[in-house]
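Protein Record: Sequence and Backbone Structure Tokens
======================================================
Tokens: labelled as protein backbone structure tokens, with as many entries as the chain has residues.
Task: work out the structure tokens from the sequence, keeping to the layout shown below.
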Amino acid sequence: MPENNLQEAEALREFIGEENESFFETLHRYRELMVRYSCAVREVRTKFEVLNEELTYHAGRNPIESIVSRIKEPMSIAGKLKRMGKPLTVASISENLNDVAGIRVICSFIDDIYRVAEMLSRQDDITVVAVKDYIKKPKLNGYRSYHMIVEVPVFFSDSKKIMRVEIQLRTVAMDFWASLEHNMKYKKTGADRPEIAAELKSCAEVIAATDARMQNVRMRIEALEKEIR
């Protein structure tokens, strides 16, 4: 059995004990829920792609560099429910977790993040549930990103489901730092040692300053182009 299927089976065995149903019944309901999350990701991703294409046409540059999506792994879902002290049931997943479906949007500049986020939130089928602005208020370790939890309707053959999707919007530089910090943290190479944590935070501050300078340079170039016209 492939490794992903083994992990899925192991996680789902924990759900069965709570729901008193067969493994295959739980497997069916779990996979059906993951299909819904996958479709929700596709809906939101398409919205960002449409916005990027329109803004590129009008501004002559693309505000979105890349879009990455994912569905949380079964073991990760089970582990998070345990840490939260929530029931290990399939129903508990959608009731208690906001980040099963995730999209990471990598933008060119800081102002692109706020512009794209605001345009998405204005769409009448999007409901913004929560926002955490780690750009204006970074985490203690230096992490910067703009997080949104949104609800989007997904239409199936016989029903409409309101699904939640977590969105992270970052610049290329923010994503570079976050990816390296994540790798070092989970490889247990001592990233939590005070001197290393301080160095990582310092790097985050340098990257943030560079983001701000690059945006300023772009704005100056755009102002000069307007003068020439």
